[in-house]
Amino acid sequence: MAELVTGEAVAVEIKVARLASRACALLLDLMIQLVILNFALVLANLTTMVADDAWQAGLIILMTVLIQVGYPCAFETLSRGRTLGKLALGLRVVSDDGGPIRFRQALVRALAGYLEFWVLFGAPALLASLFSKRGKRLGDLFAGTVVIQERASGTSIYGPIAVMPPHLAGWAQTLELSQLSDELAMTARQYLARFWDLLPEVRDALGQRITDQVTAVVSPPAPPGVRPEILLSAILAERRRRDEWRLAERKARRMRIAGQHQTPWTGQAAPAPAMAMAGAAPVPAPPQGPPAPPPFSDPVPGRPAFLPPTNYGSGPYQDVLTQPRPGAGPNAWGTGQYPSGAGAHQPGAGPYPPGASPYPPGASPQPPPYPHPYGSGQQGWQAPYPPQGPPQDGAPPREGPPSTG
Fold this sequence. Notes:
By secondary structure, the protein is mainly alpha-helical. 40% of the residues lie in helices and 4% in strands.
C-alpha cells in the first residue's frame, strides 16, 4: 500500500501493483504485439511484387514503430491507462496525483518502454522497479505515472474477515472486551484483510505487534502457542457476535413496545421483513339503509300536533309515511282530512282522539282571532268566512263588499 496525494491535497491510500502482476501483464502485451508484427511483416514482404526494396524497408520500419510504440500509447490513452495485458490482470496506469493518464505521458512511457523491453530486454525496468518504493520503471519515472492494482480479489471483498477458530470458541466467550477500542479493533481488522498481501517477515512482525496491543486490554490471557492472526480473528469474531446480540436485543425490545411478533435470536441477527404490517386490516363499514323517519308526535290537549304531509312524494321516507299507523282509523296520518260533515273546529273530530279537546277545560270553543278582511280597522273576534261557511270544491269564490275608497 502507498499514500497518494491528489491535486486537492487529499491523501488517498492506493494499492501499488506488484512486480509479478506487472510482469505477467507485460508478457501478454508482448505476445499480442509479436502476433500483430508478424502479420504486418508478411504484408510488407508482399509489396516487393509491385514495388522495389526501398518501399519494403520503409514499410517494415513503419510497421515496427507503430506496433511497438503505438500499441501501448494508443491503448493507454484511449482506455485511460490500460492495455490488453493490464486489463486482464486488473492493473491501471495513473498520474502521480491520481488523475487519468494523458497522451504525453503515454507517449513518454511507450518510447521508454521500447528502449527498456525491446532493446535492453527489460533489465533497466527490473532494476528501477526493485529500487523504487512504488515499483516504478524508467518510463514511470520520466512520465510521472504509477501502476496501481485496480481489481481486488473476491475473497477480500466478499469473504469473512474474522472467523472464529473452533478450538478458541470457549476461551473467546469468557473474554472481557470493554477496554478494546474501536480504533484498535479496526487496525486488527485491516491487518487481517491485507494479510496475504504483505511480505512474510513484515506480516509476522506487524501481526505480533498488533496482537500485543490487543491482548494487553482483554482478559483472560490468550492460550499459549497460537499464531497472531488466529488470535486476532477469534477476538474480532467474538466482538462481532456480541454486537449482533445487542442489536438483536434492542430490536426485540422495540418490537415488544410496538406489540409486534418477535423472533428469538439464534446467534445471528434475523433479517428485517420486507414489509411489516402496521396492524389488523380495517373492518369495512356495513351498508347503510335509509335513515329513520322523524318522530311525528301524537296530538296532546293544549298543544298542536305535527302531522306528516299529505303528499310526500319520492324520498327516503315515502314507504314509511304513506302507510297508515298501526291501530289508527280512517283519519290516520297521510289523509290530512276531517270527517265528512264535521266542522273545522268541532271537538272530538279530525286529528284529535274522541274525548279530547284542543281548548282548556271550561272554555267554550271559539274561532281563532282573524283581522278584518277589508282593512277597515275593526278589532275583535272575526270569522274568516261569511255565515254560509267555507267555500266548497268547484264553487266560485265569493266577493267581498265593494271598496269605499
